Write a sequence for this structure.
């Protein structure tokens, strides 16, 4: 059984997954993702399913890209469960897990998350042979640059960045742009756990200490630190 954690956006959740089934899933209070919140939610999931911590063989966590704070909190919580239960961790690409929720046959699935700083995080995926396959590396791009990176054909948009920039995407793509129903296109812990099950079979489980989030771009703190470390130029 896999404990899955999703915290890449403000819409956090936790789930228990076994094989190809989501046994139980619970949303976290929006914007209140903390170690205590995760702990209480997981305890409730275990009670609801009649499970014990000893039944958990892996902990999966949404590893990014996404909110820097959310990813750090989720990764810390996941590592805490791994250390406490003595199980390995499975870092799961956030955008891939989101695309997994939408088996859009014949379309390119493009998860889009608001990255702030006038950018979005995006990835390209396609369902083939019953599997959601990656077409491109994850990227951080200005929203108006994304349509130029999309392949021909129908594009299915999901994620919290799809609606804010929906008008732009429709203007650039016309009828090729299709969107998830409002409120339904967000990341979920259940999808994280289902993708983790596949990744485990591919040998992606790691020792918890070695796992780090995939931020895609440097944080604001890193940018400021880099600027402070630049040598003083005197012309």
């Amino acid at each position: 059984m896999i404990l899955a954690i999703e915290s890449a956006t403000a819409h956090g959740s936790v789930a228990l997954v076994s094989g190809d089934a989501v046994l139980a899933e619970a949303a976290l209070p929006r914007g209140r993702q903390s170690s205590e919140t995760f702990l209480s939610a997981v305890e409730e999931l275990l009670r609801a399913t009649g499970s014990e911590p000893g039944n958990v063989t892996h902990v999966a966590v949404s590893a990014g890209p996404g909110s820097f704070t959310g990813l750090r909190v989720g990764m810390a919580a996941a590592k805490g469960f791994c250390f406490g239960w003595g199980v390995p961790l499975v870092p799961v690409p956030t955008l891939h897990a989101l695309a997994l929720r939408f088996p859009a046959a014949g379309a390119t699935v493009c998860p889009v998350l608001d990255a702030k700083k006038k950018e979005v995080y995006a990835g390209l995926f396609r369902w083939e042979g019953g599997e959601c396959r990656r077409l491109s590396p994850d990227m951080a791009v200005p929203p108006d640059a994304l349509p130029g990176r999309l392949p021909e054909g129908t594009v299915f948009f999901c994620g919290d960045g799809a609606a804010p920039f929906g008008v732009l995407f429709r203007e650039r793509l016309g009828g090729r742009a299709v969107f998830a129903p409002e409120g339904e296109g967000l990341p979920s812990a259940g999808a994280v756990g289902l993708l983790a099950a596949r990744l485990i079979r591919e040998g992606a489980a790691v020792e918890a200490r070695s796992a780090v989030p995939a931020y895609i771009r440097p944080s604001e703190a890193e940018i400021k630190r880099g600027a402070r470390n630049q040598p003083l130029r005197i012309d």
Q: What stands out?
A: Residues 84 and 178 are 43 Å apart (CA to CA).
